[in-house]
Amino acid sequence: MSTEASLTALERSVFYRGLAEAFRSPSGGTNVLDESWIPAPSPNAKTEFLEAFEPSVSKTACSLYESAHSSRDQTALFEELIRWYDHFGLQRKAKAELPDHISVELEFMHFLCYREHLSEGDEAALGALRRAQKDFLNNHLHPLSISILGYSQSFANRFKVLCGNCEQFLREHTLVLDNG
Amino acid sequence: MSKGVTRRSFLKAGALTAASLAMPNFLARSGGSLQALAAEAPPDFNSALDVYRKAWTWDKTVRGTHMINCWYQAHCAFDVYVKDGIVFREEQAAEYQQLNPDVPDMNPRGCQKGCSFSHRMYEHNRIKHPMRRAGGRGSGKWEQVSWDDALNAIADAFIDTMIEEGTDRVIWDLGPDINIGAANAAQARLAQLTHSICLDSNSSNGDGHRGAFETFGNVYIERSLEDYFYSDVIIIWGANPIFTSIPNAHFFTEARYNGTEIVCIAPDYSASATKADLWVPVKPGTDAALALAICWQIVEGGHVNEAFVSEQSDLPLLVRTDTGKFLTEKDVDGGLESSFYMAASGGELREVDRKDLDLDGFTPDLEAAFEVPLEDGTKVQVRTVFSLLKERLSAYTPEAASEMCGTSPGLIRRLSKMVIEAKALSNVSGSSMNKYFHGNLTERAMILIWVLLGQMGRKGAGYSAFGFLANDGWEDYVSGLRMKDRFTFGTEIGLDLVWDWMKGETSEQFFKKLSTSQFIDPGGNLPVWTSSALFWHVHGGVAELAEQADQWVPNLKKPVKEALHESLEQKWLPLQPPADKTPRIMFHYCSNPLRSVRGSQKLLEVLWPKLKLSVAIDFRMSSTALQADYVLPAAAWYEVTDHKWVTPLVPYNHVTNKAVEPLGEAKPDFWIFTMLAKHMEARAKARGLDFVESHLGKEIRLANLYQDMTMDGRFGEDDGDAAAGAILEQSSNLSHVSWEEQKETGFVRYDGIGLSPLSIGNAGELKEGEPFIPLTYHIDDKQPYPTQTRRIQFYLDHPLYLEHDEHLPRFKAPPSIGGDYPLTMTGGHTRWSVHSVWRDNALMQRLNRGQPYIVVGQKDAEARSIADGDWVRCYNDVGEFFVRAKVITGAMPGQTIMYHSWENYQFAGSGDARSVSPSPINPVELAGDHAHLKIGMLEGQPGCFDRDTRIEIEKISPEDRARLGKG
Description:
Chain A is mainly α. Helices cover about 60% and strands about 0% of the residues of chain A. The mean pLDDT of chain A is about 95. Chain B is an alpha/beta fold. Among the domains of chain B are: about 225-465 and about 785-805, Dimethylsulfoxide Reductase, domain 2, CATH 3.40.228.10; about 825-915 and about 935-965, Barwin-like endoglucanases, CATH 2.40.40.20. At the A-B interface, helix 1, helix 2, helix 3, strand 1 and helix 4 of A face strand 1, helix 1, strand 4 and strand 6 of B.
């Protein structure tokens, strides 16, 4: 059992929030995650972020969209993700990122964990939420993080560390859910 | 991460105590707060299968289309399906009404490309934020910036350049996707308010239909698709509609059930040839010989429609045998140089009526040859154009022509018989012929077939050149909607035009003149245009690639470079800015010149270093955007409401509705241009700058730029929808249906060709229940053509044409552009691309080989030990590129096909398909200062030629391939 098991649902929710922010913008996540976990942004963070995660401008970049890492049809994937979000009462904002961006998927896990935190004591609710987290991690978010990690060796340090820690966090959370 | 340290230690102090939901991408579907939603009991969840229960539900569907230039096949109404602000799919609307019971309807319009746009708009090269270059150009280093920062920087550079070097140093590089709707109106309005320069891309696209222009004084000649059903012979010539006109193709194939015969003339056994009744193979670039052989059969067999050619063409006109010039009134009695003669039998001169084609019963002698006394007391021998033509055609017997074009004499005779016996003969036009160096001669020879037979102006009969049909309110909008009378545009030249009109010139001639004026000085209320081909050759350095043209093109009378210099010096063709002024800022809008311009490698070497600023406005990263200084994210076609020009083939205005919000920070084009004006006004005011003087000596009101741009606030940056509607309300040919109704239906049939310079040349009526037939204003109503002689003109007495022996149609052997190499590199569009916007679309890539390839015939491949799929080096004197070989049996020996529009970054190594195409200018196309050989919108400009490119190919080793890197 990793140290992950000791986290509360609220703590996990905050972690997911920090990770979502870190993948959303070059200096994101720093208000939530400690620098020992994600290095502070360098003065070139804006350029480094695009070099790492924007394939349209950098040949070595890795896309942060699940559809770029999946053999599944992009439209079908969007539809499935939208239905995931819809099932839990969420509607995409008009100016939102696409539903398969890793930051959006992390944000969804942030929500599920937060909801788990508010459902303490309601075993039926906790069961449903944990089954959903497990399925979502196994079917979408964790495989995506593994694929992104595979590209990360050429990234600037902040983003290389972010990718590694993200994958490890998701892996450990998956283990917790599998064992729970 | 060391063990034993709990993860909570990695959370910042305070993060946990302040923990709450932070969800920038979501709302609660119930409309309540997210916090309240989280506090609700969650829905049951047993497995991921639960989420499948809501498949096939939508929030809404809207009508949409694609603002893409597929040209002949473009314009298709789609239903666009939206859920949660995402476009999930589209399908063909299929509600076009049948025109009449005799003809098929248009349904379903749309192809796999349009059906994949919902996928395309979300692909991973979508631009979502403004970006600024953070390293050297093309280094791949970028940073995201705010719209304010980007627009302020661009506004400052724009103003600096106008002040320091002139307004004509700012260039709008406009590609073929401009829409003649609100988006493009905003760009054009900003250009006209700043007197910056717009590039007319038709010339560098090689779509100029120069032969039609030389013959009709006009390239815009096209029918509606329904009309093909009335043809009994349809010739596909210089086109491949089964590949490139997917929604149109059923009209041709269904016509066969009606008894129509289809002929396909092409070097290769193309997709269209497989659907033809007769395939006529011809060596690349030699079609003129085949066409003239048919003409010879027509003349020799006595099949000329003498009444038609006498009335409609210059064939009865008299030419002086001493100078090769038309006999004019000035020669005979000192009168007008623009008055010409024909002759009655017996040698009596008859002056040609310039205002009416009707001969009032007069029958000219088509073969007259006699002596005419001149005003100076001398005499001159004259002959008719027809007699000169007949003499020339005698060189094109089937046997002689076969030596030139490779088609067997028997097949030429069989084809000629079909053509001569046709009751209604039509052609399917493409823009392939224009891409041959002597394509103008080929097109003139092709048109001659139709004119000699009088196969024009009737149902099912006619020659199609270039399609364009547009609203005529766009110019009004661009000029500021200040003119109630669209004929004057409030310009000085407008008054001149009105005077011409009052003198009896036709509306067509009137608007042609207006079109020409926009390349010189439009008088203040319309933008200034220049020929893109001239621009890239002179300012882009492409002309340097063609310095060996004299070795490639036989019998040039002077070096191409010298001819170009002479034309510019003599101002035969206007160039903005002139050759001695350097462009400084380029906006690339709907354009991708680093991919599309032949010899585009020169642009990076010669032009880019001179640019202070390069701005790409696009929704995806193109080859050109990758080399820009700023990239501005444009809304995709389902993220904005607007409308688009069409062609007479599909004479329906097409509308796209905003289905979803633009992705990320993307903005509608209308917003971008209006906001740039706003920032320029603000920056000018901050500098205390009221105005600058333009290169045309006009006052550019910088301190009022936003006010002028928005027409005193009527059309602000968020009012693109209203602007699109205002354009249609101003239009004479689209105001019969309200904008709101047009948005709802997505398509509305035009009720006239209107007065746009881009459409008026079609010269026909759009009648209810009838197919559109072009040129009936001339053929039925006897209005003169906008040519020197006011007739369909095969004889060009311009000195350049006389010098090059091109005063009459003829065959000239294709040059060896790029050097003396054994293979000709032809080209064309494919089913899966047409243009680069689709080339790296993952769905389209799955339908073909997905990476650049060159098509090679089996024998040519075997001779070089090349197997299908091998990597090959393609090279000539100018450059090289590397692709895989696709070996087929259907290519003519000596022919290779490099299909169009692969992005540069899809090639392995440094070269791309343009690297071997120097595209020298054809000197006769530099003619100007002539009654009808002068520049205009999309016509009268030098072309670009890649179909005569000669190359060699060789197989490369796996090791050499590996050294090329990614591709």
